[in-house]
Amino acid sequence: MTTRKILRLIDAYRARYPEEQDAARVRRLIETEPRCFERDCYDDGHVTGSAWVVDPGGTRVLLTHHRKLGKWLQLGGHSDGEPDALAVALREAREESGLVVRPISEAVLDIDIHTIPASKGEPAHLHYDVRFALRASSPERMRVSAESIDLAWVEIEDLARLTDEESMLRMARKYLAGE
Q1: Domains of the chain, CATH where assigned
Q2: Which run of H or E residues covers position 130?
Q3: What is the per-residue pLDDT for 135?
């Protein structure tokens, strides 16, 4: 698969959010770093895919208490060579929760660039995270993976009580606005 699809999705995102600079940076990385979808691309960072997973009613979001980072976050992970960020988000959501999920839309919900601290022989590096909204079909059948301490369904309207992480709150605002 080529990178054309993700570049089209990023361009559409940039048209919706021209004030956000992270999308342009992700596009630049994809255009200039041939290994940007590999997890060991540390110098420039690498592209990851994340999932904003909501319950069938669309009022709760599934969060993972991330074992490595010690924070409540959305599900997601490394591309491992896959340039289709939506496919990565779907794979990671299924692996990390055991849930059956499907895209609400193929449009990018959010883009965020953040630093991952050094750990277990890996240097500190950037994740260029492309995020999608997914819906779970059976929210009660989830299972916690080895990457998580726990999973929890959280009312989207109450997310600010659990985290002050701006990128999480921004995803909530975008999702609730129907964007």
Answers
A1: 4-176 (3.90.79.10)
A2: strand 125-136
A3: 97
pTM given for the model: 0.93
Closest CA relative to residue 137, chosen from 91, 89, 99, 87: 99
Give the tens place of pLDDT for each residue, 109-135. Answer: 999 999 988 988 889 999 999 999 999
Distance of alpha carbon 95 from alpha carbon 153, whole angstroms: 17
Q: Which of 56, 71, 54 is nearest to 157 (CA)?
A: 54
Q: What are phi and psi of 170, to 5 degrees?
A: -65, -40
Q: Is the dihedral of CA 27, 29, 32, 33 positive or negative?
A: negative
Q: Is the dihedral of CA 87, 123, 126, 81 positive or negative?
A: negative
User: Residue with structure tokens 């960020």?
Assistant: 85
Mean pLDDT of 15-23: 96
Residue 15 pLDDT level (bands cut at 50, 70, 90): very high
**Cβ(103)–Cβ(86) below 8 Å:** yes
